[in-house]
Amino acid sequence: MNFSERIQRVEPSATLAISNLASQLEAEGKDVVDLSVGEPDFPTPDNIVDACETAMAEGHTGYAPSNGIPALREAVAEKLQGDGLDYEAENVVVTPGAKMALYEAVQSVVDDGDEVVLLDPAWVSYEAMVKLAGGDLNRVDLSPYDFQLEPALDDLADAVSDETELLVVNSPSNPTGAVYSDAALEGVRDLAVDHDVTVISDEIYERITYGVDPTSLATLDDMYERTITVNGFSKAYSMTGWRLGYFAAPEELVSQAAKLHSHSVSSAVNFVQHAGVEALQNTDDEVEQMVEAFEERRDRLVELLDDHGVDVATPDGAFYAMLPVADDDRQWCEDAIEQAQVATVPGSAFGAPGYARMSYANSVERIEEAVQRLDDEGLL
Ligand code: PMP
Ligand code: GLU
After folding, report:
1. Using 50, 70 and 90 to split pLDDT, how confident is the model at 113?
2. Tell me, what CATH number does 129's domain have?
3. Domain shared by 25 and 160, yes or no
4. Residues in contact with ligand 1 (CB, 6 Å cut-off)
5. 245: which strand partners?
6. Pocket test for ligand 1, best of 125, 228, 319 (most atoms within 8 A of CB)
7. Which one of 46, 62, 118, 192 counts the least CB within 10 Å of its CB?
């Protein structure tokens, strides 16, 4: 077979590849501490599962309206309005996972040769999505600034120009856990307005923060009309396998992206969307409990690493920490999985060589076990 030049531009997802390797080693009987994939380890809350079962029993098993069932589009709009955003149900497209929302957004605005700015370290799939759309990447490195955006605004100003079509902002960030300050986001706004840039604000970790309240980019003056707000259910509600996410944007973008949506996925799964309404409306206590557990794990991980003389930038959100490792971070991650049976993701996959990403969506006991094993193997 001949493969398209387009598909050959990209590699498989590094996060999923390592997670698959960890599962394979486990199937071979190895006791792997899996700190690779970003996946909450809690079961989906019961009320959401029940709502899904009820929806199936009630017969919501056929095609759903392409952009989403009205009840969920309305529930999403209500949630976003509660966050100070001006979206109505017509501004919302429900997708099978936030990944598809991002894919549709990128496909809708990026043409061959268009410039897209990423803030490194950046989640692995942004690069692949941009390359599939034919865009050219321009990357701004936040690593010298403890992964914060505010001190890097001058660098960002150097990168953004009238040639820039799209900028991707992800706060709280995967893989760093950084939550960007209001001043940082205002800096993004000023550049986006000056250079007429569209911005994707990936807010999938917005509910998972520790003592800080992340600002939603489209709440800033002059940002509504140029922002595509992306969110999903995987992380906040521990619903990774349900594949449910959404984007909200001005209606002109919605009608463009909806064409790709209707010709590819048709819609997100009908009964899963009904469960999504329940998740948004009745799960606050469970989310709070999960976030408390993540915070305890974060604190323990940072403390343990500190005990071993390893200084990590304390993440304010999500469930990731960037561990400074050897220059050859891919080799380090290979050693960690082979020698210590601890799975992590090389920073290089996110544009941050010299680091490994640890997902602390795992029990305190397993996190302690991981640090102990890495220390025993001389990897800390
Ligand atoms: N954005 C970020 C930053 C992520 O970490 C993920 C992880 N899966 C996604 C989007 C996509 O999430 P999902 O497709 O599971 O909703
Ligand atoms: N986003 C998660 C991660 O970074 C899940 C895997 C993926 O979709 O990349 O590990």
Report:
1. very high
2. 3.40.640.10
3. no
4. 38, 97-99, 123, 170, 174, 202, 204, 232, 234, 240, 245
5. 95, 232
6. 125
7. 62
> How many CA atoms within 13 Å lie on the side-chain side of 25?
19
Structural tokens at position 72: 């969920």
Residue 55 lies in a domain: no
Q: What is the mean pLDDT of residues 176-199?
A: 98
Q: What does the pLDDT read at residue 12?
A: 87
Bond prior to 121 in cis (omega within 30° of 0): yes
Ligand with an atom nearest the CA of residue 357: 2
Q: What is the pLDDT of residue 21?
A: 87
Please count the other Cβ atoms lying within 10 Å of the Cβ belonging to residue 16: 14
- 264 and 177 in one domain? yes
In a domain, 341, yes or no: yes
Domain check: are 168 and 204 in the same one?
A: yes
**Residue 352: domain span:** 7-44+285-376
In tens, the pLDDT along 260-316 reads 999 999 999 999 999 999 999 999 999 999 999 999 999 999 999 999 999 998 999
| Residue 23 identity | S
Q: Is 91 left (phi over 0), alpha (psi -120 to 50) or beta?
A: alpha
Residue-level length of the chain: 380
Q: How remote is the CA of residue 32 from the centroid of ligand 2, in Å? A: 18
Please report whether residue 308 resides in a domain: yes
How far apart, in whole angstroms, are the C-alpha atoms of residue 285 and residue 82?
Answer: 17
In a shared domain, residues 101 and 194: yes
Interval between CA 378 and ligand 1 midpoint (Å) = 33
One domain, residues 140 and 273: yes
Residue 278 falls inside a structural domain: yes
Query: How many domains are there within the chain?
Result: 2
Give the CATH number, domain containing residue 319. Answer: 3.90.1150.10
What span, in angstroms and rounded, lies between the C-alpha atoms of 327 and 355?
A: 8
Residue 147's region, left for phi above 0, alpha for psi from -120 to 50, else beta, is: left
274 with 371, same domain: the answer is no
What is the pLDDT at residue 49?
A: 98
Element (H, E) at 151: none
User: 293 and 351 share a domain?
Assistant: yes
pLDDT digits (tens, 9 = 90+) for 160-173: 999 999 999 999 99
Distance between Cα 99 and ligand 2 center (Å):
9
Nearest-CA neighbor of 294 among 270, 264, 316?
316
